[in-house]
Amino acid sequence: MGNSSGWRGPAGRRRLLFLFLLSLLSQALSQPIRYAIPQELDRGSLVGNLAKDLGFGVGDLPTRNLRVIAEKKFFTVSPENGDLFVSDHIDREEICGKKSTCVLEFEMVAEKPLNVFHVTVLIQDINDNPPTFSENITELEISELAITGATFAMESAQDPDVGVNSLQQYYLSPDPHFSLIQKENLDGSRYLELVLKAPLEREEQLHHHLVLTAVDVGEPSRSCTTQIRVIIADANDNPPVFTQDMYRVSVAENLPAGSFVLKVMATDLDEGVNAEIIYAYINIGKAVRQLFKLDSKTGELTTVGELDFEESDSYTIRVEAKDGGHHTTYCKVQIDISDENDNAPEITLTSESQHIQEDAELGTAIALIKTHDLDSGFNGEILCQLKGKFPFKIVQDTKNTYRLVTDGALDREQIPEYNVTITATDKGNPPLSSSKTITLHILDANDNVPVFHQASYTVHVAENNPPGASIAHVSASDPDLGPNGSATVSPSSGVGLDLGALPPRGDSGHRPAPRRSSRPATEGYFQPGLYSKTIPGALPNYSERTLLYSYNLCAASHSSNTEFKFLNIKAEDAVPQDLLCDEASWFESNDNPKMPSNSGNLQQVSFFKPFLP
């Protein structure tokens, strides 16, 4: 029984396996190439073989010209073997701050053909930073009337590392009067409170000395300590109380300095000095102090620095209220930053070539365009388009990468170059945009037929004229450039007529007189002429790029003048044989018409060469 399936048998199975692997490769290349490396690698450290992961062979690398496209180049690719190396110092905390995941993204561009590949490198944290307290010694004043279970805010340690390498645990030196508890803010950060476990007696002990230790669980583990000096203060009956445990507000980014944010308020039932309340920050970093100012007397919070949503979208602040009798209470302030469309899109333009062949095919890639907007949401969504009408269009590859390709016929003789303006506009309100202009030069192609300046030429020639004398002046032009516009004029066959070469770009040439001959003046000294383009290193084009002319020869054997009329004859109008007045018997078997030497009357000879495509 015959095998009806083309996929069966060894050859069919190999073809099926090839198509399956090809589909897997296509799916793989459509996804980003991903790597993971620890931070702080030395320059020159190997990340991976990018050429292999992209499916390129070593032999492809010289022509594909792999290169990195990024705002800051932390990596470079070897042109010899396609290895991806670290080219700059990578500090995870400097690049990503406290983000749980730190990823560097960039594009790899390959030429011939122009392709773009998205590459992501996950930067893994190492435990290169110990926790730190802002102060080596902290003083805490507590009333002797403080009740058991009262809590007192403590400064937390700061650790720029993330995950297990970040701060994980605190330890307090043993003391019968105090213990330590850890709590969490809404944003996941931790804060400490010192808890009073037993009543204080100022008369027995004026001060208590404690040691607070902060430890992370990285490898190796790192730690730091601070001294706590507790001062026992005289009695104050009532502590201050905030009107809210949590204050929350949303403000727009880019508020001018001095703008009001909110006001916290606490009250105290005591009188006099014991009722005077002072507000202060508790456990905040330097960055927050540079952005917000807390009035210690009124509790008003105002801006002192520029708020930037792109740097942080929220801040959690703890505020302390302390009365004159040293009682304290605490509240939280949550400040959410709303995004404003304050960043125009950025355009990075990489041009493979600013010269385009005039006869380039539709869809030919010209340049790679990459856009970026620091804003988020709609404010960060970008529309990339051309400004004006051009024979080009923009094709989107990925979310923020595009290609500029041809989208119409190019005619160098009409427009030799284009100044193409590319505009990127975001979807914010109001929208912001930026633009870049690229100049594209059109390279000439041999796409124009040379054209004579007249359709016909009438020439009067005296018999017995000296050889080499000029008998006619013809002019023609070709709009092409360089060798494409260089041309010569010559008869298609026969002898007796010498045509001078036409210089390029419409210069003219003279037709010299025929050589003297003992034959009758009406023999075929003048032949149909061709204007053709000659290009160094290439054959002249005698088909679709040739203008055909026929000549009518009027001659009288006893007359002193002979008239030659050059007529433009279309190929479709050509008759199947040469004509000499009405006497076909005057023709011989060759191409040259002849006239009897004994003719005494004025005759007209009309002949031509048909156009052969």
Automatic annotation (TrEMBL):
- Which GO terms label this protein's molecular function in UniProt? calcium ion binding
**Biological processes, Gene Ontology terms:** homophilic cell adhesion via plasma membrane adhesion molecules; nervous system development
Describe the task this protein carries out: Potential calcium-dependent cell-adhesion protein. May be involved in the establishment and maintenance of specific neuronal connections in the brain.
- Region Disordered: start-end pairs: 469-526
Membrane-crossing residues? none
Q: Which residues form a coiled coil?
A: none
Q: Which InterPro entries match?
A: Cadherin-like_dom, Cadherin-like_sf, Cadherin_CS, Cadherin_N, Protocadherin/Cadherin-CA
Residues spanning the signal sequence: 1-30
Return the GO cellular component terms, semicolon-separated. plasma membrane
| UniProt superkingdom | Eukaryota
Compartments, as annotated in UniProt: Membrane
- How would you describe this protein's topology in the membrane? Single-pass type I membrane protein
Keyword Transmembrane helix assigned to the entry: answer is yes
**Which keywords are on file for this protein?**
Calcium, Cell adhesion, Glycoprotein, Membrane, Repeat, Signal, Transmembrane, Transmembrane helix
The gene from which this protein is expressed is PCDHGB3
| Protein's recorded name | Protocadherin gamma subfamily B, 3
Q: Which residues form the Cadherin domain?
A: 75-133, 134-242, 243-347, 348-452
